[in-house]
Amino acid sequence: MFEDLSTKLQSTFKSLSGQANITELNIADSIREIRRALLDADVNYEVAKEFTRKVKDEALNAKVLQSVSPGQQFTKIIYDELTHILGQEKEEIRFATTPPTVILIAGLQGSGKTTFAGKLAKLLKDQKHSPMLAAADVYRPAAIEQLKTLAGQIDVPVFSLEEKNAVKVAKGALAEARKNACDVLIIDTAGRMHVDENMMNEVAEIKDTVNPNEILFVVDSMTGQDAVNTAREFDTRIDFDGVVLTKLDGDTRGGAALSIRTVVDKPIKFMSTGEKLDAISAFYPDRMAQRILGMGDVVSLVEKAQQEFDQDQAQQLQDKIRTDSFDLNDFYKQIQQIKKMGSLSDLAGMIPGISQQIKDVEISDDALKPIEAIISSMTPEERSEPKILNAARKRRIAKGSGTSVREVNDLMKQFSQMKKMMKTMTKMSKMGRAMQGLKNLYKQGKV
User: Which of 2, 184, 327, 442 has CA 20 to 30 A from 219's CA?
Assistant: First the structure.
């Protein structure tokens, strides 16, 4: 996401890298290029204009720091302003003091409302809540079945009625949630291909009936400026509390994300990056600004890893690396854990410096399948002792996994290199601890 915008912004920063100071003359072209990049990303014109004005004023008034180059200083100014227009700080769902907390989901058809409702239910369940879903999209064919299918995957109850009365569904769901001690009720409402009076009246009536604690407006981020215009109309009628950006894994130019906070003055609370039910995360303005500028998002990457790896597993892995007993069984387990963390391209984009290097490279989530197939085609002994793999065994493994002997050899070579790297890192870690120990002894006057 935001690849084009990121590329153009970084190109602008490079143009200042050889300058001694920031002056009105040498940033004029940069400001013009930034405005053009924002408009190309389908950012609202007034937002782009105000953004570049603030950046220019801040740049010209910035104190010159001897240890920081003009390019670095300008990058920091852009980062601060991006963080500001994206919302400054993460904003949470406001939970009711007396359960259930009622969350109303609104938006146009095709924006991903129903899928998001399922994702939000899973996220809240993982956080030890007891959610219920309400199928108040009573017009779209198979909408109720879609919600029930999603709910079945995460074992969450769904309330629905046969009759096409969304208000009655919402009211009945609230009573059912109270009866079953569900502390969160998520109401999935109907959407249309465009904003119309009937749709607005229905959502407004549901709001008046159940008095939701939180109204979330779901935006297809691929629609750019159109999404912002729709958000403005919805906000006028139902005064929603927060925005959800969906389809951020697609060819997103970024216009919606960079405009909506300023235009409707409502925070972006969640973002969605895929079809899987765990492809949802809270929206952090500072982390998104870092990703737009190609700085990666190490914090989110670590958080994803922490969700999938428990402390005992991490310790066991560390012990295996230290004793040089890390084998292909362990390697296979690590692949499974990585797959749970999300799409490979999304994970790679979180690593600083990597997003620009891979911007033209298609990273498929199927890239790991040949490796899994090769390891699965080995015997337990071969996975534990890869050194016993001779030519005959490799031919058998290649045939069984639908790959070639060359691919088997490549995997074994990569695995061997990875083990050497792990061993080196372990030695360096020990050396670092030893040096620290000597340093402490020196401070104590014992050496």
Answer: 184
